[in-house]
Amino acid sequence: MEWETVIGLEIHAQLSTRSKIFSGASTAYGAEPNTQACAVDLGLPGVLPVLNEKAVAMAVKLGLAIDAEITPRSVFARKNYFYPDLPKGYQISQYELPVVGRGHLEIELEDGETKTIGVTRAHLEEDAGKSLHEDFHGMTGIDLNRAGTPLLEIVSEPDMRSPREAVAYMKKMHSLVRYLGICDGNMQEGSFRCDANVSVRRRGTEKFGTRTEIKNLNSFRFLEKAIEFEVERQIDVLEGGGAVVQETRLFDPDKGETRSMRSKEEANDYRYFPDPDLLPLDIDSTFIEQIRAELPELPDEKKNRFKTHYGLSAYDAATLTTSREMADYFEAVVEQADAGQAKMAANWVMGELSGALNREGREIGDSPVSAQALGGLLARIQDNTISGKIAKEVFEAMWAGEGDADTVIEAKGLKQITDTGAIEQVIDQVIADNPKQLEQYRSGKDKLFGFFVGQVMKQTGGKANPAQVNELLKKKL
Ligand code: ADP
Ligand code: MG
């Protein structure tokens, strides 16, 4: 507890435009290497970049969603450096005047509290190509298809104080860009990744410690593990009397450790200067207002509405609104089932459904059980046709493609027994078969009540209405 962790993230979100940020080449993922980089993306002599208006609109969208200032006149700059997958010798980015200025994002912490994380800026830039090492022995492959793909780099303030907070922030930003439809959020394909800046300081000191930057983290788990390792490492260095070196590090997921990649260049090593081929980017209020009018309901607004309208807890509301798809699914279930059943619908979507989706690695969009079908199942619990327990069996059958709730209930004969006479008959039999337990129960061993309930449920194949069984048993015993 003597050390405090300080984290700031630089998130790169690939914008889902169809063409590149400065050329007409396609951005589609997965094409044959080097078939989608044109002369502009390669910076061949004599070409001129032309800014993609859609990319600007997407950046503004994010800016509005995080309540940030939109810079009326921003500037594209050349960031000069050599890298094999950057044949131009420079990357077009924004430096002193980014398109999106200061904003903020609220994150949910485990204890139900919220915390506001400052966003320093977000700027537009082009991605570089890819160096491929895996399939080449003693060589490196270069695929330039990604060169010129639009990126929005979102830089946070060093406001996070634990790996968990960093993960919560990255998750929230991930959810937001997907709500806005500006990034597909596919982390495996690298569409959404981050660099984590990490430092530690003794609690109570005001000055930040020296930071290291862990590059290219493309999963929430890696982000958490990388920071955890790095914090331990820095504390060991400092407690051993050493000093943390400002440098760039890489995370090795197999070993769970970070290692030095290169010492940190000074910013002015890049010799940034305004790109002479591109005009300053002027954004007027009409453009901004148009985009504001198109904003969808955002995660926080949706979360608050779920709390007030459906009476859900903060946790349920936050979980269900993580993605627009899940929120829409939930609302469709409620509509189908019964407006009064929001809590039950929430439990099913977060429980059985999410569990089944995770089990098979599926997205909610291709769930074999549609929202309407799940709503139909919940309606059968609600009208006492089946119990909640039997419903789980019905759900599994629906998942396996055996039809809707009514079809499965009918085919498997799962209808709940609500006929008092029938239940009483079973109870009488159970009591007659278990005289010893009956005696013990009557002499004060209350716990045996559960035994009798279990026996009745067993005899009825779980189909007896549980509330009725309880009531009738109490009377008979
Ligand atoms: P650079 O462009 O060299 O990466 P920036 O000043 O833009 O540097 O900072 C990058 C990130 O580092 C930001 O997210 C910022 O919040 C974070 N950061 C800055 N100082 C620290 C620190 N001492 N500890 C942790 N993070 C830091
Ligand atoms: Mg950086």
Automatic annotation (TrEMBL):
Annotated InterPro entries: Asn/Gln-tRNA_amidoTrfase_suB/E, Asn/Gln-tRNA_Trfase_suB/E_cat, Asn/Gln_amidotransferase, Asn/Gln_tRNA_amidoTrase-B-like, GatB, GatB_C_1, GatB_Yqey_C_2, Gln-tRNA_amidoTrfase_suB_CS
SUPFAM superfamilies in the cross-refs: GatB/YqeY motif (SSF89095), Glutamine synthetase/guanido kinase (SSF55931)
Keyword Iron: no
PROSITE patterns (UniProt xref): GATB
E.C. no: 6.3.5.-
Keywords: ATP-binding, Ligase, Nucleotide-binding, Protein biosynthesis, Transferase
Residue intervals of the Asn/Gln amidotransferase domain: 328-477
Catalytic activity: L-glutamyl-tRNA(Gln) + L-glutamine + ATP + H2O = L-glutaminyl-tRNA(Gln) + L-glutamate + ADP + phosphate + H(+); L-aspartyl-tRNA(Asn) + L-glutamine + ATP + H2O = L-asparaginyl-tRNA(Asn) + L-glutamate + ADP + phosphate + 2 H(+)
Group of enzyme by EC: ligase
GO molecular function terms attached to this record: asparaginyl-tRNA synthase (glutamine-hydrolyzing) activity; ATP binding; glutaminyl-tRNA synthase (glutamine-hydrolyzing) activity; transferase activity
Ion transport keyword on record: no
One GO BP: translation
Pfam families per record: GatB_N, GatB_Yqey
Cited function: Allows the formation of correctly charged Asn-tRNA(Asn) or Gln-tRNA(Gln) through the transamidation of misacylated Asp-tRNA(Asn) or Glu-tRNA(Gln) in organisms which lack either or both of asparaginyl-tRNA or glutaminyl-tRNA synthetases. The reaction takes place in the presence of glutamine and ATP through an activated phospho-Asp-tRNA(Asn) or phospho-Glu-tRNA(Gln).
NCBIfam families found in the cross-reference section: gatB, PRK05477.1-2, PRK05477.1-4, PRK05477.1-5
PANTHER family in UniProt: GLUTAMYL-TRNA GLN AMIDOTRANSFERASE SUBUNIT B MITOCHONDRIAL AND PROKARYOTIC PET112-RELATED, GLUTAMYL-TRNA(GLN) AMIDOTRANSFERASE SUBUNIT B, MITOCHONDRIAL
Family: Belongs to the GatB/GatE family. GatB subfamily.
HAMAP family named in the record: GatB
Subunit structure: Heterotrimer of A, B and C subunits.
Name of the molecule in the record: Aspartyl/glutamyl-tRNA(Asn/Gln) amidotransferase subunit B
Gene responsible for this protein: gatB
